Amino acid sequence: MARFTPKVVTANALLEGDVVYLTADDRWTRRHEDAELIEDEAHAQLRLLHAMSQGNVVVGAYLADAKAGENGPEPTHFREVFRTRGPSNYLHGKQAELN
Q: At the top level of its lineage, which domain of life is listed (predicted)?
């Protein structure tokens, strides 16, 4: 049996299209470090089902690998690192904030 790796629930905000993450108190945030880090597989599946039931708020919810970091969860895959930075075609939103 494969060992479960920690996850966060991520999706896209329905109206804006921004990448969002589910927090432990059931809010959607645009900050990866504020996401709930889930370390139990059964709990991860329940949280994903909860996210998927919010079709009027988010689309495309899925579980993304993450790890504990100093300021909260950190992505472990380059795709998720890229998603934390926002659109790549021009500087605005998250990318403007990083500069």
A: Bacteria
pTM: 0.86
Q: What is the pLDDT along the chain (99 residues), one digit of tens a residue?
A: 679 999 999 999 999 889 999 999 999 999 999 999 999 999 999 999 999 999 999 999 999 999 999 999 999 999 999 888 876 655 655 656 655
Dihedral sign for Cα 86, 27, 51, 3, please: positive
β-strands 72-75, 28-29 pairing: unpaired
Instruction: Supply the DSSP string of 12-61, one letter for each residue.
Output: EETTT--EEEE-TTS-EES-GGGSPPB--HHHHHHHHHHHHT-TTTEEEE
